[in-house]
Structures are given as C-alpha cells and as structure tokens.
Design brief:
The complex is a heterotrimer of chains A (288), B (323) and C (244).
Chain A: H1 2-26, H2 35-53, H3 57-86, H4 90-116, E1 129-132, E2 135-138, H5 139-161, H6 163-173, H7 175-180, H8 185-208, H9 218-232, H10 237-257, H11 263-277
Antiparallel strand pairs in A: 1-2
Helix pairs in contact in A: 1-5, 1-8, 1-9, 1-10, 2-3, 2-4, 2-8, 2-9, 3-4, 3-8, 5-6, 5-8, 6-8, 9-10, 9-11, 10-11
Chain B: H1 6-23, H2 25-28, H3 32-57, H4 64-78, H5 84-106, H6 111-136, E1 142-143, H7 150-173, H8 175-185, H9 187-192, H10 197-219, E2 225-226, H11 228-231, H12 234-247, H13 254-272, H14 277-291, H15 295-319
Antiparallel strand pairs in B: 1-2
Helix pairs in contact in B: 3-7, 3-10, 3-12, 3-13, 4-5, 4-6, 4-10, 4-12, 5-10, 7-8, 7-10, 12-13, 12-14, 12-15
Chain C: E1 4-15, E2 18-29, E3 33-37, H1 44-52, E4 59-64, E5 67-68, H2 74-80, E6 82-84, H3 97-106, H4 115-127, H5 143-155, E7 161-165, H6 173-188, E8 192-196, H7 200-206, E9 209-214, E10 217-223, H8 224-229, H9 231-238
Parallel strand pairs in C: 3-8, 3-9, 6-7, 7-8
Antiparallel strand pairs in C: 1-2, 1-4, 4-5, 9-10
Helix pairs in contact in C: 3-4, 3-5, 4-5
Classes of the chains: A mainly alpha (288), B mainly alpha (323), C alpha/beta (244).
Chain lengths: 288, 323, 244
C-alpha cells in the first residue's frame, strides 16, 4: 500500500514532465531530447530562489514557468522552425529534431555544469511527515502531487475548453487539415512547444522540493519522459498521465521489493513490452 | 558484377598503402602519438561499423556503448578461463545477440522509437552488469592482465578496421547491399519486390553490433582495469554518431573524414578545456544538423555535382547551331 | 475450364468506422485481363492493397491459385508471384532505370542476380519502350517513362498476377494508346492482369470481365459492355438525378 501511494506521488511529477513532452512531440512534432535539461534548470533556479531569497517553490512556479515558456518559444521559433520548414517528410524532421535537441541537451548541460558544478544539491522544504491511510509520506511529496494535479487540470481546461486549446489539439491530430480550417499551425506549434517547456519546468520546480538533483541528471528524466509519452500514446494527454502513474508505481515497487539499482531495467522492461505488444501506446491510434 | 572495376582496384591499392603506412607507426613512436593513433583507429573501426547499419537505413543507433561494453566484459570475465581470441569472438557474438534482440523489438516500428530505445540501452546494460557484479562478487571492477602492449592493440584494431571495410565493401556489392539501397529509397517498394525489410535490418544491425563488440573486446587489455562506467561509457555512443555524421554516411569511407580531425579535437579539448567537453559535443551536433546534414563528404559531393552541372550547361551553348 | 489465378472470398477491411471493403468476392481466371472499377472512394485501391499485402484483411480469404495469401506479409506475397504498380508512381529515385527494374528481379517470385539480372532488366526496358535508356537516372525521367520503368520492375519477377493501380491515369491521348497497346501485348503473352482503372475506353477495349465496386461493396460483376450499361452502375458513378 505504501509502495502504491509513494508510486502515485512520484507518478504525479512524472506526469507533468511527460505532459510537457506530449505537447512538444504530439503537436509541434519535435522529439525534444533536451526536455530533461529544462527540468534540471528549473530545479536549480527553484533552489536559488529558495536559498537566496526564501521564495517558496510554490510561488517560484509563477516565476519559473513563464521564463521557461519564453525560452522554449524562442528555441522553437529560431532553432526548430528552420528544421520544420526544410524537412521533406516527417521522418527527416524526426531525425533532424532529435539531433538538434540532442545538441541542445549537451550544450545546456555543459553550461549548467559550468555554472552550478557537478555536485548533488537539495534543499529542505515542507519536509514534515504527512499521513495518508496510515502510512507516512513527506509533506513535500504530497504538496508536489497536489500542485501537479492542479496544473494538469488547468492544462485540461485549456486544451478542451478554450479556442486556443482546441486549435492546439487539432494540430496534434492533423496539421494539414488544421491548416485548411484556418488554424495558424506554425504559431499553434510554437505555443504548444513553449507551453510544453513551461509544464516541464513546473515539474522540475516541484521535483526539487523532495529530490536530490545535479546538473547531469537531465538525460535520465528525458528518457523516462520519452518512454511515458510513447507508452501513453503519442499526443494523448490522458495516456501520458496514466502511463506516468504506472511508471511511478512500477519504479517504486521495483526499488522497494527487488533492488533500487534496477529501476531503469524496470522502466525498460515496461517500454519493451509496450513496443512489442502495443506500439501505438495505451490510447494511441493504430497506424494505418 | 563479379569483376572489379578499375576505380575499385585503385581505391583498394590506395587503402592498402595507407594501412601499411599506418602499421609502421609504432616503430617511430611508442608514446603520445601511438596513443592518439590508437584512438583514431579505434573510432575508425567503430564509426565504420556503425555506418554499416546506420548509413543505409538512416536509423541513428546510440547503442554503440552497449555493444562495446559487452565485448570488453566478455574478455574481462573470461580471461582466466578461455583463450583471448575465443573471447573476442564471444564478445562479438554476445553483442550480436543483443543487437538481434533490440532490432527485433524496435526495427519493425518507426525510427524514432529505435533511437530512444538505444539511447538508454548502454545505461540499462551498465545497470544490470553493475547489479550482477555486486551480487556475484565483492568488488566492482575486473582486472585484465595480458601480455599485450599498446602496439599489439593498435595493430589488432587496424586489422579490425580493415576487416570492417572489406565486409562493408562486400555487402555493398551483394544482394544485401542492393536490398538496403532499395529500402533506403522506398521501403514500401522494397516490401513489394519481395524484400523482408525487418529481417534484413536486423541482420545488418547484428553485423554492425558484432564488429563493435569485437572492438570492445580488443580494447579490454588497454587499461588493465575494467569497470562498468568506463566500459559502458555513453560518450562512446555519442562520439561515434558525431564523427560518422560529420564525415558523412553516404560513403563507407565517409566517417574516416570525421574521425581523424574530431579525435584530435577531442584530445585537445579534454586536456585544455576538460569541463567543456559537453559544450563541444553539443555544438558539434548543432553544426551537423544545421550546416552539414550529409557530412563533409556529402557537402563536397554536392559542390562537385554543382560544378559538373555548370560545365555541362556551358558546353551546349558553344555547340548550338546559329538559328 | 480455365484455372483460377486469384480468388477473393468475403474480403472485408475497415478503418475505424469506415468500411472500405465490405464482403467482396470475385474470381480472376488464368490469363485474364480483369478490371476492377468504380467511382472514387469505392475501395478499389484498398482491395488491391489487400491482395498485394500492403494491408491485411479483417475477414475473408484471398487465394493465389491454391495458396492462401490473405494475412501474409507483403514480401511473402510478392515472392509467391503477385506484383504491382502504384497509384502514385513509386520509382527508386537514387538509381537508374536498369537498377530500378533489377530491383524487381532479385528478391521476388523469380530470383536472378548478376549478369542475368542486368540482361533481364535491359530486355524488359526494351519491351516497355525504353530501349537504350537503361542508364538514365529515373529522377530525370518524365512521368510516363517512370511509369514504364515501374511496369518493367513489376514484370521483372515474372508474376503470376500483375496488379495495375490506375496505370493509365494522367496520360495524354497518344501516350494512352501506347499504354493500352502495351497492356494488350502483355496479356496476349499470357499474363494475368488485374487493372484498377477510371479510363473507360481502355476498359472497354482491353477487358472482357470486370467487377464494379461502390462504397466498399461489389455491385456488379460480368462482361464489360453489359456492366457499363447497367443503370445501377451508371448511378454509382454519376449519382442520383437530383444530384446532377
């Protein structure tokens, strides 16, 4: 039971990161391998705000998210748009965007290593114990989970109840048709990419309240986000959330019941099963 | 199709001369330059083996470190029990089996999934090997004591590079090579002319993986001490991709054009700016994507084609009859 | 009684809610020049895709002679002797005409290699009217010439059944005559050919039997002239009176 709850709490944070990547891959069609770096940068900035200015990470969200939004928007518009325009087909764009964001991954990681060093960092925030169903969990984890839920609900409202959000979803389903009904696909894609970055940054901010982070851990989170997005069905928001929860539970279960050194193996096992038996993901549409 | 063209004979002779010259290097220097040359030859072998698969299929494999590490570990684990040459073969075989499994799982679907899967593969294998090591023995590392010197390893890697090249050349002339060309042009057509595209991609991936595993096995005695983080170092995967793409993967010798300068650059960077290796790698990827999508050789061939086109355009004007 | 080259029984293919091929059955006899016609969106190309293995049927059987091919992968169906051209011509852009045709001869129903494959490719290119143009890169060829290369490639494997997906589309009148004559020549040589076509004159002059599809169903089967005169067929093409 404890494993289940801890797993779900972890899954909540994973969900935010995966939602960010879902928007970036599902709408803007960019497989953003640098997404983990956005997460790590958010961790460090949240830490800096808390340590230097005593700004609670929860308020920090309102500072970090817009910054991430703007930076990601700029990355899409100036670095990734040229690739979109020059790609002759979807396959080429995927390869190009993978290589380009891979380059960004190393660039940002290198810059962060220079700025913050390679040491592990953490800070204490709401580290008291909180009881759920008889088990004790860090209050910070619980608060992070609740915050993640609120953000996810806000995202849902945006995507399903506003015009801009519906336009974004249309582009995810079929960019050509969306173009034909008058949607500015380019700006919808840029919006989605920026929004995705903001979500990932939120995930990073919340993660920093209970996780010990360092400048090199971005790649691991990118991988998990990628696996979650694929497991849930590319472009599907509900799928990403569900897959994130499953991964959170599976990882926690393996760490507690088998061995903490095998968490990545567990993730990969799940990924392989999905690839073998349901490559379109839980909610994905079968490729024709 | 079985007779060699004069072009091919010329290239073979040049290649043989280069290899012969390279083989004499240890007679002149046994220190820094031999070490550097060893790195160059190592990456020449790795990048060419990588290009055997990733060139024709355009699937970016990041699994190099996993195959390499398996080869290293095959030697490290078995050196007390089996003769070294056999271990090299076993290393190659284990890598090929992993390649087969990974290929069977991912090559039937789109290329993106393949890249993502291979991205974490080295880490995954490292985690499993580390875990097994802690369970089965007390320490993390293994000692590899042999009589091999840097010289011997250098020559073995040189020989391996030659074998990889010859294999690549043979494949290109074979039905497998023709099939890969067709798949690279249009996979639907490939399937409709009777090519089992999934099976061939897997076979090619296994051949590529086997050579990479062999390189890892040959390199095992170099440092005498082997442990998971260095054997399965993900940097190997990334560097191989950069060098191969920088050189250009349309030709079998394209990656060499990337290997030689980049190995030297990385050597300088790791000495003078050791904290900035990530930044250099990041900039290299961006350079490739934005300026050299087909690598240096691709860019040169583009220029050659353009110049030839200009010459052809100029001629008819001179031959045109007056109206 | 002539042997059956291909038999389709109760084939069905749905994409989500859209049933593209709905319980379609027909026979194609050995050496026949058979037409599969119908208005746009009737499911003809999907039916061809089911036969060639580009898609797997949800239900029903497709038999090539006595071998069941429905459900097999496309490359296996090709090796058993089914060859096709595509609605939007698919040539291999990085190669010349000869290698494009050789692609069909090396891995399929007939497997040759080396000098034999080169000779076969040259022969077939001459057959389709491209003698002497073997080393021209297909990317530099005109559309009709690319179609000819694609046809030669499909013939290279000596298929038991040749599928032509709107091969005559997009041709001007003189090209059309050449194309029709070529198909007729192939049929006289004994090839079993299934044509999906819109060019009615071609169907009338080339084919004896045909099947008409509309909205996924087979609505008529029989001799070409009777079928094309059938009011139900005419209605399927032109719509009801009030639509006109």
């Amino acid at each position: 039971m404890e494993t289940l709850v801890t797993g779900i709490l972890l899954g909540g944070t994973y969900a935010l990161i995966a939602l960010g990547l879902t928007l970036q891959y599902g709408v803007a069609r960019i497989m953003n391998l640098a997404t983990g770096e956005t997460l790590v940068a958010a961790c460090f900035i949240a830490f800096w705000l808390f340590a230097s200015y005593q700004v609670s990470p929860l308020w920090g969200l309102f500072i970090i998210a817009p910054i991430a939004f703007v930076i990601n928007w700029a990355i899409y518009t100036y670095l990734l748009r040229p690739l979109v325009d020059r790609a002759r087909n979807a396959g080429m764009l995927e390869v190009d965007s993978i290589l380009a964001t891979f380059g960004l991954l190393f660039l940002f990681q290198g810059l962060m290593l220079r700025s913050f060093g390679g040491a592990y960092t953490s800070y204490t925030f709401l580290a008291e114990r909180f009881e759920i169903f008889g088990g004790f969990y860090g209050l910070n984890r619980v608060v992070a989970f609740v915050a993640a839920c609120l953000i996810a609900v806000a995202l849902y409202l945006f995507l399903y109840k506003t015009r801009y959000g519906t336009a974004v979803r249309a582009v995810a389903v079929n960019p050509n048709s969306a173009n034909l009904v008058g949607i500015d696909v380019a700006s919808a894609a840029a919006l989605a990419f920026a929004l995705g970055g903001a979500l990932t940054a939120c995930g990073g901010t919340l993660l920093s309240t209970y996780y010990t982070f360092n400048a090199s851990m971005g790649v691991v989170f990118t991988m998990k986000a990628l696996i979650i997005v694929i497991m849930g069905g590319v472009g599907d928001v509900r799928g990403a959330v569900l897959a994130a929860l499953i991964l959170g539970i599976a990882e926690t279960a393996v760490a507690r019941l088998i061995d903490p050194g095998l968490t990545l193996a567990a993730t990969y096992a799940l990924f392989t099963l999905v690839l073998l038996f349901r490559p379109q993901g839980i909610f994905g549409r079968q490729q024709t | 199709m079985t007779r060699l063209s004069s072009d091919e004979i010329r290239i073979a002779l040049i290649g043989a001369a280069v290899v012969a010259a390279a083989a004499t290097l240890p007679l002149f220097d046994q220190g820094y330059y031999l070490s550097l040359a060893l790195n160059i030859v190592l990456y020449a072998a790795l990048c060419t083996a990588w290009t055997l698969f990733s060139g024709p299929t355009h699937y970016i494999s990041l699994a190099t470190a996993a195959f390499f590490g398996l080869g290293t570990y095959a030697v490290a684990l078995g050196l007390d029990y089996l003769p070294y040459p056999l271990l090299v073969i076993i290393g190659a075989a284990v890598a090929a089996i992993l390649a087969g499994l990974v290929g069977a799982a991912t090559l039937r679907i789109s290329g993106v999934y393949f890249v993502i899967f291979t991205l974490g593969l080295a880490e995954l294998v490292r985690q499993i090997v580390s875990w097994l090591q802690t369970k089965l023995s007390t320490r993390m590392g293994l000692y590899v004591f042999t009589d091999f010197t840097e010289q011997h390893i250098y020559w073995m890697l040189l020989a391996l590079t030659v074998v990889v090249f010859v294999t690549g050349w043979l494949i290109n002339r074979s039905r497998l090579g023709f099939a890969m060309q067709i798949i690279g042009n249009d996979e639907t057509v490939a399937r409709h002319v009777g090519i089992d595209t999934a099976k061939l991609k897997i076979i090619l991936f296994m051949i590529s993986g086997a050579f990479i595993g062999m390189a890892g096995a040959i390199l095992a005695p170099r440092y005498a001490y082997v442990e998971p983080p260095s054997a399965f170092n993900p940097m190997i995967s990334f560097l191989v991709v950069i060098m191969a793409l920088l050189g250009g993967t349309r030709r079998l010798w394209g990656p060499l054009v990337g290997v030689i300068p980049f190995t030297i650059v990385m050597d300088i960077v790791s000495v003078r700016f050791p904290n900035d290796t990530s930044i250099v790698i990041g900039l290299s990827f961006l350079l490739i994507v934005y300026l050299l999508p087909d690598g240096v050789t691709g860019r040169l061939e583009q220029l050659r084609a353009r110049m030839k086109h200009k010459r052809v355009e100029a001629e008819p004007a001179a031959l045109k009859e007056p109206a | 009684m002539t042997a059956l080259a291909l038999r389709v029984t109760g084939a069905r293919k749905a994409f989500g809610g859209l049933v593209a091929v709905n319980d379609v059955s027909f026979d194609v006899r050995q050496g026949e020049l058979f037409a599969l016609i119908g208005p746009n969106g009737s499911g003809k190309t999907t039916m061809l895709n089911l036969i060639s293995g580009a898609l797997k049927p949800d239900r029903g059987d497709i038999d090539l002679g006595s071998t069941k091919i429905s459900g097999l992968a496309a490359h296996n169906i090709a090796r058993l002797g089914v060859s096709r051209t595509f609605q939007l011509v698919r040539v291999l852009p990085s190669m010349d005409a000869e290698h494009n045709v050789m692609a069909g001869a090396v891995f399929g129903h007939r497997r040759v290699w080396g000098a034999e494959a080169h000779d076969l490719a040259r022969e077939l290119l001459a057959l389709v009217g491209l003698r002497g143009r073997e080393h021209v890169p297909v990317a530099a060829m005109t559309y009709i010439d690319q179609k000819r290369v694609e046809l030669a490639r499909a013939l290279a494997s000596d298929p038991r059944v040749l599928l032509l997906d709107e091969w005559l589309a997009g041709l001007n009148p003189s090209e059309l005559n050449i194309g029709i004559a070529l198909i007729e020549k192939l049929n006289r040589q004994g090839r079993t050919i299934i044509m999906v076509e819109h060019v009615m004159d071609a169907i009338r002059s080339l084919c004896e039997r045909c099947v008409v599809m509309s909205s996924g169903r087979k609505i008529r089967e029989g001799g070409v002239s009777e079928v094309l005169a059938d009011p139900e067929v005419v209605q399927a093409y032109l719509g009801d009176d009030d639509d006109a």
